[in-house]
Amino acid sequence: MFFENSRLQQAWDNTSIAVFKDCPRKYFLNSVQGWRARGISPPLAWGGAMHDCYEVYDKAKIEGASTEAALCLSIRRAFELAAAGFGDDNRRTLLTLLRSIVWYSEQYASDVLQTYRFPNGRVGLEMSFSFPLPFSPAGSTTPYYYSGHIDKLALYSDSLYAVERKSTTVALSEQFFARYTHSAQIGGYVYAGKVIFDTPVSGAIIEATQVGVNFTRFGRLVVHRINDLLEEWMGDLHQWIRWVESCHKEDYWPANTESCSKYNGCQFRNVCSKNRELRPLMLETDFVQNRWNPLVTRGDV
Other CB atoms closer than 10 Å to residue 222's CB: what's the count? Predict the structure, then answer.
């Protein structure tokens, strides 16, 4: 994922570029040096389990299983994934996961979205992609790459869409969905769909699951990307990577202190608040090194 004998990242995805946008120093600690918090946060663990269970359900359905049979397979998977627990959040438990799966099967029993099957028989679920970007580091002809994972490809109104599944505890309001109408993540999905698949991707569908202690709600939003916006997405990505190159060349990664308290606080906030000579020890004590690799695949495209 990095150029040979270099700390300059070659393979990019929305996760890694978003970390740099948030804070260059956070990017350096997290993506370049590979420091990560120990374990998986309960929201991520629960959300990952939800994705996995929905995938099991969809795959069984497209293979011809009845709703009841597909639901049984999904429930079985939920028990397997919940063995390690989801922390102490009473909104994210095995019970709320099971309820979400059952209600999902009822909500979308006659779904207008049809999971896409490629001519070669490949099912459009949990698909990884990677394609070369039309630019390289200064003085090099080796391109950068952009990678990602599409939760689901589905046909809707005779057009192909990338379905992005989200889990949340906040209300599925217009404000919630508005954050995705100009999302760089969605731009990447649609751009990838246009350059990789024989059938162009028309846009993305945000499929959200809101989970509470005593309820689960579902909502969807269709997001389109016209060619002009896709070209702008590529131009923005190019500029952001040029700024990464600048930090890499100067070997200086400034802290964006405006981001320290976002998302319940940056995981490196306490590290950055200490003198520089103390930071290596804090990182070794409180974190583990495991570089994020955008090229790790979930399936073949």
Answer: 13
